[in-house]
Amino acid sequence: MEVVKSNFDFALPDIVGAIQSADMIAIDMELTGIGGAGEIKLLSIDTPAQRYSKYRASAESYKPNQFGLCTFKWDPETNSYISKAYNIYIFQQKYKNFEPAFLSSSSSLSFLATHDFDFNKWIKEGISYLSLEQEQAIRKDLSNQKVRNQDPVVLAPADEIFVKDLLSKVKDWVDMPTDGDAKAPLNLPPVSSYHRRLTYQEVSRVYPDLYLKTEQDPTEGSRFISVQVMTDEQRAQREEEKRQQQEEELRVAIGFRHVIDTLIDAKKPIVGHNCFLDVLHLYHQFVADLPVSYEDFKAHVHQLFPQLFDTKQILHELPDVQTQLGSTVLGDIHAKLRKLNVEPPVSLAQGYDRYTNGSGLHEAGFDAYATGLCLFGICDLIAKKEEKSEPHHPVFADHRMITDFVNRLHLMKIRGYMNIGGVDAVPLRDNLVWISGLTVEVRSSDIQRHFSTCGKCRIHWVDEAQCILEFFDREKKIAVTPEWIQEIRKDAPFNIRSVSEYDALQAKETQLNEEVGPPSPGKFNRKRKRDNTADQDEQEPKKRR
Asked: Which residue from 55, 279, 333, 401 lies 20 to 30 Å from 534 (Cα-Cα)?
């Protein structure tokens, strides 16, 4: 089902019901960009905490434009899962004084266009939303506004003429006789917001029984104050109507987040494919700003979503299954499962036949649906390997097939994973050294030559002035100790320090960046020219040619 602004109110109860009754929920997002606002240098020796710090800027800079959600509910009568897939356009819009701004990357937009993404529908029909933190800030601001309006404005000499003329108009209107009918409202001329506040203050001071309301001219768009005579009962009714109108406007502004609130309350197993960035956006866009502390991030996410599964990470931990599928790319997995005649017991619910023909790759709704099929397919392949033929119900975290993989998120180009609910799998770091103070004259071959007695090594370039050196020679088995560093740094034309010092500096820089703000957009990675004499997985910056 496609969900947009015009049918969201109709679709929301169905989505809420589907989530609440589901056994498992798959999600996916399409984004306006993936990289950070500045440079993102991904190293295979990054820790999960460092990778979080690097991608945090991305979730703060870019926006999701499609949210895919697919629920799966086990039907014992048909011995299959009944799925409901929703492809939801979302576009955060201005609400009162809050106006969102975001970045887009040309490559991401081109990618979406290649797959027939409807940009006009996104902007015109995208459902708006507020994060929980934004909603709380707006409610606080509205409350403070009432308090500010109660503080008297001290009249300046220039204001006295305005107030005198204002009260004269109101007096003439009040004194105007009527023939027993209700007195028609007095519509005052449009004035500035400051003078509207003066009007409320001075008219209410002199005529406390009158009711004042700000209106908007439907043709010119200007705002004016309407003065009316009301009973206490009528006044209370108007105030209640105003409160209800404000709540309704806020409900519409919260918009799509009602779906996320339901996900949080339901605490159902959630599955994604390579979903680390999706989880960052899920928290930042709909809950609150991402915390600086990596451990705080994990704790908050785990509290909200206690059962997360990443099918890409599951495949990386099941090499036999990965070999059978030949790929960890979602589209390839979906196609391969069909070729292998691995047909998970899933059927589309009546009225949810958008993906009946099995196509729609890179539409968020389809990708969510395919992610669920991928998980079921993986479990089927495991069962066949174990020669089990009975029906499977692999959606609970305590199920033997997937219990080991709960809350493990895949991190690209890294030898480990993020564990939202526990201890991360961190790459070995006792075979690393930090090299800094590099000048343009120092080449990769110079570094390699200085460490020639240490066996095979790989250079991970951080920037033009520093790199991390990784030793991986099985015969040499270099152990990086303070004594070894002290010895190897002799006569070196650069600084050699432990990687723990590098990690500490990275953490300190993250804290400083938080205090001064993110880097400006538009920066590009500058890479060294590859030196064929060095065994590297990152290129050296071009400046060092």
From this structure: 55
